[in-house]
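Entry 14. Structure prediction run on the chain below.
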Amino acid sequence: MATAVPRIGNTQVAMSNLEKGKFINYQRIEDNLAIVRQRLNRPLTLSEKILYGHLDDPHNQDITRGVSYLKLRPDRVACQDATAQMALLQFMSAGIPTTAVPTTVHCDHLIEAQIGGQKDLARAIDINKEVYDFLATATAKYGIGFWKPGSGIIHQIILENYAFPGGLMIGTDSHTPNAGGLGMIACGVGGADAVDVMAGIPWELKCPKVIGVKLTGKIGGWTTPKDVILKVAGILTVKGGTGAIVEYMGPGVESLSCTGMGTICNMGAEIGATTSLFPFNHRMTDYLNATKRPEIAKYAQQFAYNLRADDSAEYDQVIEINLSELEPHINGPFTPDLATPLSKFAEEVKKNNWPQELKVALIGSCTNSSYEDMTRSASIAREAAEHGLETKSKFTITPGSEQVRATIARDGQIDAFEKVGGLVLANACGPCIGQWDRRDVKKGEANSIITSYNRNFTGRNDANPATHAFVASPDIVTAMAFAGDLTFNPLTDTLTGNDGKPFKFSDPSGFELPPTGYDPGVDTFQPPPEDRARVTVAVDPKSDRLQLLEPFQPWDNLKPVDIPILIKVKGKCKNCLIGAINAQNGEANNIQNKITGEWGPVPTVAAWYKSNNKPWVVIGDHNYGEGSSREHAALEPRYLGGLAIIVRSFARIHETNLKKQGMLALTFVDPTDYDKIQPDDKVDITGLESFAPGKNLTLVAKHKDGSKDEIALAHSFNEGQIEWFKAGSALNLMAKSAQN
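Output returned:
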């Protein structure tokens, strides 16, 4: 008798312990890959297996790396509180009663670090009550899981509860790739992308190239997983990963913990990568078991053949790193790709005249706040305490989650930190994202800090442009806190104990996972109620923080002529133009109204143009929108009447965000044409009447002396995205579809 071949889909395994009836869909990956393999007829990388395994239409989808736009069906969505507000407001306006995929919201971004954990948390809950009430009621109304303030940082919560090998997730934060440490493709997106997936619409992603990083040797001593990504950042720079997935492989992977792999994937955002990813291995099994998900571990083991790259899979670029030879690195200041080996760092400090005194050392954040990180740092603190030392620099510790905080409190690591003068902050992002009420230096005062965070652009941590922020592993950060000096090398240098004798730190030691299991701590999760019909979403009509959305106007089909330039941006541009340097005068947030001739702040001038029905454009430099995953960075220019952002190049997430809001995101075909445009030019944009994929538009820059330049503008709009522009926004098109 013939017997049916068992299918991977015959087994049902819950996607998480917190959601009923939501199962891992390995069968979809299996079925899609059968089709894709037949079409492509070549070995596949791991990232290709997972991505193509989530294709909406594997039969007809064009698949060309770096060219095609893939339509994908993610397994879930995650939002942090700052971006969730706008995402939920947009979802509400689409008129859909329940999210199409499991979705969670995490309160981690709005808690300011000031005096310590519980007091800072209480203060944030009071200040942000209106926002938290909105998020709590909106998530309850639409079937979304809600992690209350104090739960921890979104990426750590995802790793502990929701990430799984072979999954596809999008999150409204650029460090969503942290989940790659559990073999999941997890991509940072804008809120509008999240709304698409929440509404059941496929997610569009330009088919990524694949960069392979082959790890050989074995990690040990003072070298940590953080040093792998610090080294990679130095090789690829902040733009080198753009449009690519970074896929790690090789025998060296086996010496990395699951949370260490998460650290590497997390900071891959700093090289512009779409995401980063590790193959499924026993370290992931150990972590899944420790976080009470043994059934997922068993299921992934059955599916392991599709959770690693095929033999002979081809990569667009391959980097090789020998972990046995890799030394600790320190990256910075002012950019995360200025990578310096520790042995050469003291020399660089002196050569560049960086402030040698170390004011503050900060460990934790979503990048490095695992149990392993904390136990290794605590071993350094204990050794210093044995010699009678306290930290010379201020020393702060940010637990990544309530579970990590409770576990390190139980196991004595918090005591070890506090004994040497450490201050434990709330389970939140805090100083990593600038939520830091820093009072030990004045703004403008040059100083140095070192963190185990991921991002260190000018003013990122404390809003002080003179702060030199360096990034390293928690081990190096902790050791340096006792020296109070950037030139200290814990591998070679000594400190003097209270007994007057010199000592050198031993190699740090710690536990990959807690030997007696995790302590979950306080329960901070709110599941959606059974009866959601009775829930009323809390939005005060008089609020100055929240407002129900009015749809943007569709394109008027008119040719844009004599459009003023709001600002020509020189250099990096963040914070929605307030912090952008105006090429006309070299100043920030001071621009000229080209109609009245008056000078004022960027939003004020933009609002004047809007009230006088005068659309405007921005001229930008390279990597425009860097770090702007937040929806507001695209919504604000659109709300204030902006028509187009024209730049040398875009940061990936921001370009998509602009398109979603109905703005023209355009790039100079020749980047040097940026120099031809004067801040006081008037411009025309021609070619919109035949706007089509791959067809350039033209910018006519009309100069004050009567001359003009015709400049070719490229774009990456596809047919669907052009419809967003014509409809006024992607949301307008979505709401129209929902009504039909």
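The chain has a mean pLDDT of 94.
Filed with the rest of this week's runs.
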